[in-house]
Amino acid sequence: MISIPDLRIILVDDNEIDLLLHEKLITLQQISRTVLSFSSANKALEFLSSNISLHRIPPTIILLDIQMPEMDGFEFLQAFDSYPSKIKSQCHIVMVSSSLDYGDINRTNANPLVVKLLKKPLLAKDLKETVGEIFKDF
Amino acid sequence: MKENRIRILYIDDEVHNLNAFRASFRRSYEIYTASSAQEGKLLLKSIDVHIIIADQKMPVSTGVDFFSEIKDQLPDPIRILLTGYTDVEDIIEAINKGHIFSYVKKPWDEYELHNTISNAFEMYQARKQLKEKITELEKINDELNRFIYSTSHDLRSPLMSVLGIINLARLDNSVKDPNGYVDMIESCILKLDGFIQKIIEYYRNSRLDVEYEKIDFDSLLQECIAAFKPQNTAIEFQLNIDQPVDFKGDTFRISVILNNLISNAVKYQKPDEANPKVNLTVKVEPHKATIWIEDNGIGILSEHLNNIFKMFFRSKNNNKPGSGIGLYIVKEALNKIGGTINVESKYGEGTQFEITIPNRNDFDS
Fold it and tell me: Which residues carry this modification: 4-aspartylphosphate (chain A) (predicted)?
């Protein structure tokens, strides 16, 4: 159990089954009490921009898929980069993809906004470790 | 302008030559004339010609100068040079500077010039067809690569979802499965994924540029062994590395080659063998590396040895069919980096692969 009481995890994936899988995995493993699922990058960005009115942004992990129609993971990152630091500083982005493409992998690793790239299928162990690494100073 | 007629531009400063040319050839070809290189250039801006005939001796700009000037903008028309002098220097200059197809003496012989024009047009068409074929093939090749990429990608992502579901089912114990069906599903999915990964490997091998970097065979092979050891813990691996000099090569392709060959050595062991072995020997020399991968597995039937590197070939006499693509990828990857492969095998006794890979280190010194 990771003890960040107000931690929330935002899932961005066009694949409904993967959204469900990741949500269940997080709940079962008690990684976070709040899980918000978005089936498109646009919807997630809209939600994040509405957060600006919040008094305090809770610590957030975004699990972001790479291949999505309309706006893909990289385009999401590009748009998110221009968000106010009040939001950005609380959000930790983890890419999740089944991609074996070197171009995708290199682009992900090169992006300063991305903490890590996790492979699908997402394993409970990997996700816990990553969350632990992100909040090791808490 | 009729499409099927040969279009010719003839440039000569002597107007009566232009008229004579028109009179002799206008029935056979579509003829444009110009009395100077300047005028010729202007004409070429509006008309696509197949053949350009130019007189060598003209004031301001000679025929050769004209040809070499338009060479870059108009590479397609076939060029014929006309001159009253048989000056060897002129001929040499013409051929070297202006990409000239033929050289015709003045005054021209009508029959000879007809022949030259018809040959030139054949050349024009052959070049054009070749260009079209190249463009077409490049397009097909590109589409095929993209097809392979998106297929393997789109096939893989639902498979990963299935694996995710299996993992989740195990985690929350929600599926009662006394007969182990879920495990069977998982092993089938992994097999299919292995095949998809091979396709991606093939795709990357054919598309990625070759890149040379330093390779330490000891750590590379230790990694391979660590990856395959769990598949059959009974196998004794022997690693024998002689690397007195640095080796530079393409890491991606070399690991693809080694992974496929070691994977086979591990997979095709005899089920009843008491001491299954895989020996890996590397010898690095300044100009090449030689690697031997030797096993005491089931071996390959001698009549199959010639076919094992063919795409989708599978040896019949084994109960562990592979995808038939592994050794094909090995061969393709070796082709890309200039390596060679030899195989010796005795059915029932074992197989030895010998590969040589050029050492790209010598370019440094």
Answer: 65
Same domain? For B166 and B183 the reply is yes
Could you give the number of structural domains in chain B?
A: 3
The angle that helices A73-80 and A41-50 make with each other, rounded to 10 degrees, is 20
B184-214, pLDDT tens digit by residue? 999 899 988 988 888 888 888 888 888 899 9
* Secondary structure class of B54 (helix, strand, coil): strand
**Which chain B residues have a beta carbon less than 8 Å from that of A67?**
153, 157
Interface residue A90 vs chain B (CB under 8 A):
no
Q: Judge: B171–A21 Cβ closer than 8 Å, yes or no.
A: no
* Residue B318 counted as domain residue: yes
- Burial class, B350, CB count within 10 angstroms (exposed 0-12 / middle 13-18 / buried 19+): buried
**Whether residue B296 is found in the same domain as residue B184:** no
Q: Hey, is B224 helix, strand or coil?
A: helix
Are B128 and B76 within 8 A, CB to CB? yes
DSSP result, B273-329: -SS-EEEEEEEE-SSEEEEEEEE-SS---GGGTTTTTSTT---SS-SS---S-HHHH
How close does chain A come to B167, measured CA to CA in Å?
A: 8
- Tell whether A101 is within 8 A of chain B (Cβ): yes
Neighboring chain A residues of B152 at a CB cutoff of 8 Å: 100
Tell me how far apart the alpha carbons of residues B206 and B204 are, in angstroms, rounded to a whole number.
5
Q: What is the pTM of this model?
A: 0.66
Range of the domain at B98: 7-108
Q: How far is CA B330 from the centre of its chain?
A: 15
- Render pLDDT for B147-197 as a digit per residue (tens, 0 to 9): 877 877 788 989 999 999 999 999 888 889 999 999 999 989 998 898 888
Q: Residues of A with CB below 8 A from B171's CB?
A: 25, 28-29, 124
Q: Is A34 helix (H, G, I), strand (E, B) or coil?
A: strand
Q: How much is the ipTM here?
A: 0.85
